[in-house]
Design a protein that fits this description.
213 residues, globular, alpha+beta, 6 strands, 2 domains
Length: 213
């Protein structure tokens, strides 16, 4: 659904009210007006589809996450059981018009500690290998990820046949699974084999019961 530029005339009072509400919702004037008109006229916009996905994820994830959301992005933050309890964030960025990928998940940890960065890299190298292998076993060759220091990006394949609520449920379940594995690993880095063995089993179970992600 493409966007074009149109000129409309609105009163100053309406614009002030729109701008206040847009600020509270973390969006801009044009997006809010588009959303209001679409809801009033029963049109389904890409933003509405993204919101349905975010709503389902927010419903599923546990209270250990702190959430922050904008139109095309949902960020979940939680603390790790490691020394000074560093914060790790999981940011889901959705494409307005999805192609092969629905969007991407960026996992990052804010630290200057070389030891912590090395542990992060070790964890996500294992996770990337497991995910690539499991998806390949299920006939999917589109797995794509990037690891750069304290940042890991994993591209989310678009399960087009699923409605947005089920896409959100699948992504939310994946994030819960991923976060649990990462938390367990940082709490006891020496138990890597058991942690990632369980992660493989849980990921296979998730994919067997649902769709490719």
């Amino acid at each position: 659904m493409n966007k074009n530029v149109y000129s409309i005339v609105l009163t100053d009072d309406v614009i002030r009210a729109v701008d206040r509400q847009a600020y509270l919702l973390g969006t801009n004037r044009s997006n809010l007006i588009n959303q209001i008109l679409a809801e009033h006229l029963s049109c389904v916009t890409p933003e509405m589809k993204m919101q349905r996905i975010f709503d389902e994820i927010s419903r599923l994830v546990d209270s250990g996450f702190v959430r922050q959301q904008s139109n095309a992005m949902l960020t979940l933050r939680t603390a790790l059981e490691y020394k000074y309890r560093p914060t790790i964030s999981y940011r889901l960025e959705l494409e307005r018009i999805p192609g092969e990928y629905l969007g991407r998940i960026k996992v990052s940890i804010r630290t200057q500690s070389p030891q912590l960065i090395e542990l992060f890299g070790e964890a996500f190298r294992n996770i990337a290998c497991i995910e690539a292998e499991v998806l390949s076993e299920h006939g999917c060759g589109g797995y794509r990820c990037e690891l750069n220091g304290a940042n890991f990006i994993r591209y989310v394949l678009a399960p087009e046949r699923l409605p947005e609520s089920e896409q959100g449920e699948l992504i939310g379940s994946y994030l819960e699974l991923l976060s649990a594995a990462v938390k367990t690993y940082f709490a006891c880095p020496g138990n890597m084999g058991a942690v990632f063995g369980k992660y493989r089993q849980d990921l296979e179970k998730l994919i067997n019961q649902n769709d490719i992600i």
